[in-house]
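Summary for the steering committee. One of the milestones for this cycle was to obtain a three-dimensional model of the protein with S-adenosylmethionine bound, which we needed before selecting residues for the alanine scan. The sequence and ligand used are listed below.
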Amino acid sequence: MSNMIPNPEAYFRKLVPPRDALLVALEEEARQEGIPIVGPVVGELLFILARATQARQILELGTATGYSGIYLARACDVFEGRVVTLERDGGMARRAQANFEKAGLENRVEILVGDAFEEMTKMQGPFDLAFLDIDKESYAGALSHCERLLKPGGLLVADNVAFRGADEFNRVVSAHSHWRAVHLLSLLPQHSPEKDGLCLAVRV
Ligand SMILES: C[S@@+](CC[C@H](N)C(=O)[O-])C[C@H]1O[C@@H](n2cnc3c(N)ncnc32)[C@H](O)[C@@H]1O
């Protein structure tokens, strides 16, 4: 007899971390409007990674309505840290700003409205953690900016790396001498899509 839990997908679906009313409302809004937010598993993972690495300066690429940004800002709140989050859609940025205010996190988060590459070109580091969640075809281009903006030992987290568009990013981050990277294929309930890859990399 196998010593594995039978039907692990059903089993792990029951262990999705709890959320407050604001996050649940943002999940419902995202479901209705087809906004691809990270959902509660990656959200909690971002919180844990940011808290465990004591990240004070966090960079996020792809704000949408601010769902993942709320997890990141809550993680760095105890360190009086800040999240800089980049979003090219002005309407989304306004919605995110309202949500950060509802969460009482407006002093922790700065939204920069514009194309992520253009904004990053103007930015100075060092950041402790960067989270990639923009168009997947743009991940490879964002990598060199992250290499400049992350401190040595800084953590890079990339969502949706099982998308075809992330192929170049996956190959470069795995082979480049400035990164140590691991790719994880995961079950991610309420993520879009629910089975997808995540990449964790450290800037060495
Ligand atoms: C997957 S959604 C982000 C979801 C968000 N991280 C969350 O989980 O709550 C991607 C967002 O990135 C924005 N975006 C895509 N490409 C971008 C780029 N090159 N520069 C800035 N924003 C971009 C889109 O407008 C969209 O709102």
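Key point for the committee: The chain is about 40% helix and 25% strand.
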